[in-house]
Amino acid sequence: MLALDFSWFDAILRRVNAEGEIRVALSNLNQLLTARHSCRAFLSDPVPKDQIKQILTCAARVPSWCNAQPWHVVITSGAETDRFRAALQEEAQTGTPAPDLPFPTSYSGPYQDRRRACGWALYEAVGVERGDRAASARQMMENFTLFGAPHCAILTSPAELGAYGALDCGGFITAFSLAAQALGIATIPQAALAAYSPFIHRYFDIPDDRKFLCAISFGYADNEHPANSFRTDRADLNEIAQWLG
Ligand SMILES: Cc1cc2nc3c(=O)[nH]c(=O)nc-3n(C[C@H](O)[C@H](O)[C@H](O)COP(=O)(O)O)c2cc1C
What we know:
Blueprint: H1 7-35, H2 49-59, E1 72-76, H3 78-94, H4 109-126, H5 133-141, E2 151-158, H6 162-182, E3 186-190, H7 197-204, E4 210-219, H8 237-240
Antiparallel strand pairs: 1-2, 2-4, 3-4
Helix pairs in contact: 1-6, 2-6
Bound molecules: flavin mononucleotide.
Flavin mononucleotide (FMN) binds near residues 118, 190, 214 and 232.
């Protein structure tokens, strides 16, 4: 009896399936990337601890130079978040800004334009008139209420790894926010808190050989709040990529 060899067909099927899976994976990733936005008003409901652990496990899968995994987070929940929020607000009223890593010295050209566009979008959403400095300052101070979030992650990197440790931590922030988004949990990275780095060191007992980069406040979004009603856009590919060859 003639044995028919269908292995070529299996190979085609495997390839078609693999391509299909890749398309689904990319579409899922795109969905997460598009749905995620910085949340500036949270509900008080806590996130279950096992979900926070899942988010951290995903975030820690990002690459880092030499696989050093420089990130470390202190996570606050419940009364600890409220205690921190109160102390932070007091510090922001009285403290002198002193970030561990120097803040940008200026934003010019397209960076200035994009910065203004996202600032105006926020102010418009919450009803702050252009030029109303007192109202925009009040909105800025919302950073120090953690926008009402029930949790805050305090992200640090070893001082000795310098800018490259911070670079690796940027990937950690992105993966953290995407994993959270996949679980329906909203996030906002907050470099605003880095202005009060000495206070953060004291409050969380963070040694000087680590740099405080930013906080990530997280929880469930208050979707009725105007601060969550706008979305930012992104530059065209031709503005961010140069093609050679
Ligand atoms: C490292 C980092 C720090 C940020 N710090 C702040 C902050 O202190 N306060 C704030 O309101 N938004 C902060 N953001 C959010 C950005 O403003 C926001 O990502 C940007 O406008 C794009 O909007 P989207 O996140 O909604 O897509 C920060 C984002 C990143 C990545």
